[in-house]
Predict the 3D structure of the following.
Amino acid sequence: MDAENRLSYPGSRRTYIQGKLFPDVKVPMREVILSDTLLPDGTAHQNAPVAIYDCSGPWGDDSFHGNVEEGLPRLRESWILERGDVIRQTEGDASYLVAKSDTPVTQRHYAQQGIITPEMEYVAIRENLGREEAFKTVYDRYPNEKSRPQDAQQILDELTYMPRPSELEAQSGFGPKSMVARDQLTHQHVPEKRSGSRMPAYFTPEFVRDEIASGRALIPANINHPECEPMVIGRNFLVKINANIGNSALGSSIEEEVEKLRWAIHWGSDTVMDLSTGKNIHATREWILRNSPVPIGTVPIYQALEKVRGKVADLTWDIFRDTLIEQARQGVDYVTIHAALLKRFVNHTANRMTGIVSRGGSIMAQWSMIHGQENFLYDHWNEICEILAAYDIGISIGDGLRPGSIADANDFAQLAELEIQGDLTKRAWDRGVQVMNEGPGHVPMHLIAENMTKQLEWCLEAPFYTLGPLVTDIAPGYDHITGAIGGAMIAQRGCSMLCYVTQKEHLGLPDKQDVREAVVTYKLSAHAADLAKGHPSAQLRDNALAQARFEFRWEDQFNLALDPQKARSFHDLTLPHANAKKAHFCSMCGPDFCAMRLSQDIKKMGKEDTLS
Amino acid sequence: MDAENRLSYPGSRRTYIQGKLFPDVKVPMREVILSDTLLPDGTAHQNAPVAIYDCSGPWGDDSFHGNVEEGLPRLRESWILERGDVIRQTEGDASYLVAKSDTPVTQRHYAQQGIITPEMEYVAIRENLGREEAFKTVYDRYPNEKSRPQDAQQILDELTYMPRPSELEAQSGFGPKSMVARDQLTHQHVPEKRSGSRMPAYFTPEFVRDEIASGRALIPANINHPECEPMVIGRNFLVKINANIGNSALGSSIEEEVEKLRWAIHWGSDTVMDLSTGKNIHATREWILRNSPVPIGTVPIYQALEKVRGKVADLTWDIFRDTLIEQARQGVDYVTIHAALLKRFVNHTANRMTGIVSRGGSIMAQWSMIHGQENFLYDHWNEICEILAAYDIGISIGDGLRPGSIADANDFAQLAELEIQGDLTKRAWDRGVQVMNEGPGHVPMHLIAENMTKQLEWCLEAPFYTLGPLVTDIAPGYDHITGAIGGAMIAQRGCSMLCYVTQKEHLGLPDKQDVREAVVTYKLSAHAADLAKGHPSAQLRDNALAQARFEFRWEDQFNLALDPQKARSFHDLTLPHANAKKAHFCSMCGPDFCAMRLSQDIKKMGKEDTLS
């Protein structure tokens, strides 16, 4: 297993955008190269390539020839060391970095000091999705020097200008009772205000710093995971998705898990959680970390429980702390900790339809019941935060009492825990730790908004990271879809990251094709939310694909798709011949009935009218 | 191909609920038989069967032994004839019913006269989903005669009682800052008010009549399609879904189309549109109608165009009218007519990203441009309505200018046409015709609400019937999901029927497995909206499935699923042995780590605590 077993996208090339503040920041993008538009006069219009956010790291770069045994280049190592606030220590075979002093070595700490790090510039460039091109587009639209605005920033502000309905009515003069505002320059819809996002037209390193400092976003990047390409999670950025991997007692091997990692990031997973519960947890994690360009999350209580041979009663704070430190030194970027599940909330799950369905939650609830003591993760919160601050591990405060069914959604136990998640968020922030909050679960559509608004209010806009929510319980076998519906809706309202659910959820372990289906499904769900929230570059790809579709540029349509292979294979099933890729129709309507072609004819007729 | 090639659901039996007003009304339901819950004391609690809405007609009844050549029993024939307002006529080989006079023979006309038809009682029973059981449940909850309310209707009203947050706070005394209201009796969430639905706790024939009379709902049921089992489309009923079938020039045969019909209704399609454009349109439709227990819709302009060998310029009103009458006499239940696409709107599509993407729309636009005349469907609207009223064909006013891309959503052309759809709706209603309006298409999430609110306002709550909407353009190969996201959201806000989109959309022709995937996907999407809108029986199935899941009743979990075979096959992939169906864990976490089991242990510990 090495770089030569490369997963690649057709019609694409890897490019890098260099940082301006930090010249060794080089942000990878995948550019989809488009064919020309053939104009009626026989000339060709050259279509600009479309930049795609790329999670695949060096594995997606043809010029990279490393292998899994060696691991990835240590991209961030110099950035981390040059800050001068960490020291290298050795214990046994292992060597790791740790904070020199009690001062946090976190992106949050730097941001609050007003420091812009290379990581911040990296994610700013990444979020712009090749938006530099937009400047050029705007200039092209103002060929007349007199009418050309002086400042590019000013033009970009105009890109999100929202005309009032009355202005539009005045322009059109007649017609429907009201019109939707639409940006005339970018051909992109104006976002709705209610989404509450404060997304700028252009992401600057300073904007990123401010979001990190406020706690509205985090960059999970452990100082011991220098292979990690920085990415940001927050409501004012692109919606991110997470894929879970991990062996359980019943199946899978280390090699399979690393392969799953590469597979998940190829399809676009922004982070990966290693939820291993079986044997070789430590070794599996090591392989994953050394080969992962994306942040790796874990749930440390799983490994702690393995250490006491699965006996919940035997768990102790000391065992948990040692496990947390072990993972911190390996380079885990964020950890789920179920500290908000208080002992007194457990009784409130007794009359639930489906009790406690979070693994971590049920472990901690059981521990509390057995010992008659408060959740030790809650009691040791300050110590947990101090450990995380010394390695810059992001904390993902678990929702151990999330509903496991529609019936249990938004009940007392769930909301009570959410309130405590808010308290713990503030305490972690005070200790310099980057924070996000985990959320449900199973929620009917009309209760999704409440989850989001309460989380924003109680947790002070700390990023929300949800599993689903699944909007019905009646579709086992299709829960990637029930979750994608809820995921799109909650992301539209401000959820920052969606944890994927595969079609095997509730039924079995996902295989590679399930992972692919789930990642692509959550990518489309997240992207739908990006459109709705008005991410300034989101609609570029939709527009490019729609135009390719209208012009029967089939190859471009496939190549711009989230899953080009599947799109192409579906087309080939009914029209397999190579020249069908140039056909001005498709198999759905046949050559005599193509609406797209009829519509092009109408366009042509309209033009002839104007001439005659 | 006959009844013996039966498609069946495991663990289910067919039952019929008899009408009270019309004893020959017998509404089919599929009951899923559940196994017992084993209680800790060793006794068993018997779980009531769960009634499922069943679209499969006689094909889903084991005691039916007909075949495709004979067609289905003529269920509604006596109801139609007994109204005494139709006569049988013969033309060539064909014999058909038609209105005796100019008076409409439509469900709308009867409803407005205050008449409750067997069709209305049929759909009332159907919508209750075995809700008679709910009465019993309520009585069981009031064993004390004194505290038992006098009237069952009164109790059912209470089922939708919404406690105020302050009441709940008083009850709980402490805890989260606010709580979501939840119905304490049904364990079902209270719907949000904003959905605007006026769904009653119990559907009566009179309620159905009132909805039909007001135009908020329709029962598509041509007097020449007596095989059709009545169903209702309207925002105050269950959300319905439609599957498209139909041969195109490039593939498929009559036999395949009838098989697709049976397949689509087996998985739960509420109506089926025959969109054939190739040869044998008439014969294909005849086979489909005689074998369909669900309403069949068509787009008559497709056949009209075939009659002029695909030459748009040669289309005339006379050819269209004759085609419409031909289809009316065969028994088509609803027709899409693109009459709201006015000539002056066509220019407004010239600068679109994807022009006109509706086949019917592009035909009419092209015709208008060629002849310089207004759309003849608009000009002949009154005549069209008179034909439809004489057979009780529902009209589905087409949206020929629906957006074909995110970029074109909610633009001038689309909304201008919607406004005309509203005008035509009123005119059709005045002529006794049942009406719905077709809607987009491709719409980003934040613009979906506008589509729905404008449609409700401009078309006076006539049912909305949408294709998707697809919430992004970047996922060809996954457009059943992009459409299911938009579909769930627009249905939550009042859309009455969703037209499915298969994963082959934009790419190729769907095969059987694509149809199954798409139907199930739209069923879950529609059901998610039913939950959010607070359909009084919707959550029963979620609750039953969630309880089965919590109690490790695997077979019940599979059998209650929308796609039991898929759920079971996914489970069997990792745990194939028969005794794994009784295991108190699944392959996802393995035996040592099961959150569900840990949670049951907690429950047990809580009980022991109480005892000690």
Observations:
- Chain B touches chain A through 138 residues (CB under 8 Å).
